[in-house]
């Protein structure tokens, strides 16, 4: 796969919800010379790139940039940090390396009571946040010089290749960001009618602030959201996940534009790009929010299956990334504008 270095740069960059600026520098550098305009949305801090087409219709393609994180709840007298997270399972945290983002970047580890000191009644008990702590190797007085309540804590960056797979933190959703960048670069070499707005949005993990406010400002004729979904893994079967290596996953449901989705699936079928269907009502992605903006925006959703979501070892298939780039590129190249809703058909 081309641009492995770009993917590694994206997933090892640190960009927790509300503090995504370091990732935007990578995106802007990667898109230099490939888009007609690139700017920051003042209302949300999201990054927007514009690629002009030959026609008048507009398509927004969105991928959120932010990553899950923990936050410092207390700095103890002995120098240890108490912390909490809304979106990370505490059971996966003991023994992990982390970064603490205070007035100075500090490395630390998440520690627990040694097994030898665990009481028999506690042996089969899962850890909660109350029992976990971050140890940065500092005394209480020293660490207070750098760390305050409310500071971010993120997984330590790392990037590993395992056969056809990439392993890292924040593949949710830097894989979507990577696909969107690769699509924009491919569009430089082909003719397309539709004007493309590429939205690299902020704060999806909590409020979808970037997706809502930026799409309100742009108000495109239609929107396509790029995100991740669950992959089949040990103890996650076909009822909950999708097989890696089988291509992107296209969401179908009452909240998604059928017309736009049918054009996506027709593109895949026409050009022999494999894909799967994810059926639901709401998707728990920015697609749920963007479709409600202003008088409504016809919206579709394409997801990339990943294993071990919201952990530091998320896992994605290289071939799934390549197939997703190809599907979206061809969808844009052969894009047909979405007509106004008639007779209740969305």
In words, what does this structure look like?
The longest helix is centred in the middle third of the chain and has 17 residues. This protein is 25% helix and 26% strand. The protein starts with a helix and ends in a 13-residue tail after the last helix. The protein has eight helices and 17 strands. It is of the alpha+beta class and 346 residues long. The protein folds into two domains: 229 residues, 3-Layer(aba) Sandwich (Aminopeptidase), CATH 3.40.630.10; 86 residues, Peptidase M42, domain 2 (Elongation Factor Tu (Ef-tu), domain 3). It is globular. Strands 1-2-12-3-13-16-14-15 form an eight-stranded mixed beta sheet, with helices on both faces. Strands 5-4-9-6-7-8 form a six-stranded antiparallel beta sheet, with no helix packed on it. The chain has a three-stranded antiparallel beta sheet with strand order 10-11-17. Strand 10 and strand 11 form a beta hairpin.
């Amino acid at each position: 796969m081309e641009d492995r270095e770009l993917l590694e740069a994206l997933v090892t960059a640190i960009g927790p919800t509300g503090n995504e600026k370091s990732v935007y520098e990578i995106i802007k550098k990667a898109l230099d010379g490939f888009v007609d305009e690139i700017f920051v949305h003042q209302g949300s801090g999201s990054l927007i790139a514009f690629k002009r087409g030959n026609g008048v219709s507009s398509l927004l393609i969105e991928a959120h940039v932010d990553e899950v994180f923990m936050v410092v709840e207390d700095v103890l007298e002995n120098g240890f940090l108490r912390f909490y997270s809304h979106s990370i399972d505490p059971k996966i945290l003991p023994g992990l390396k982390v970064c603490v983002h205070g007035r100075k970047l500090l490395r630390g580890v998440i520690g627990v009571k040694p097994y030898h000191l665990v009481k028999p009644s506690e042996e089969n008990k899962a850890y909660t946040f109350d029992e976990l702590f971050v140890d940065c190797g500092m005394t209480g007085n020293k660490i207070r010089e750098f760390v305050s309540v409310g500071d971010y804590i993120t997984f330590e960056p790392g990037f590993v290749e395992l056969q056809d797979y990439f392993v890292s933190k924040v593949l949710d959703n830097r894989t979507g960001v990577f696909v969107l960048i690769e699509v924009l670069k491919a569009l430089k070499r082909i003719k397309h009618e539709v004007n493309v707005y590429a939205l690299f949005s902020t704060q999806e993990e909590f409020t979808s602030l970037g997706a809502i406010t930026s799409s309100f400002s742009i108000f495109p004729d239609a929107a396509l959201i790029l995100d991740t979904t669950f992959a089949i893994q040990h103890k996650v079967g076909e009822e909950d996940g999708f097989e890696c290596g089988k291509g992107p996953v296209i969401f179908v449901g009452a909240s998604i534009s059928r017309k736009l989705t049918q054009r996506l699936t027709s593109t895949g079928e026409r050009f022999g790009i494999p894909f799967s269907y994810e059926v639901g009502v709401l998707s728990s992605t920015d697609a749920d929010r963007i479709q409600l903006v202003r008088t409504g925006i016809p919206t579709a959703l394409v997801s990339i299956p990943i294993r071990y979501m919201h952990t530091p070892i998320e896992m994605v298939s290289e071939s799934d990334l390549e197939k997703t780039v190809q599907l979206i590129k061809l969808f844009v190249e052969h894009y047909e504008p979405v007509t106004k809703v008639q007779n209740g058909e969305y």
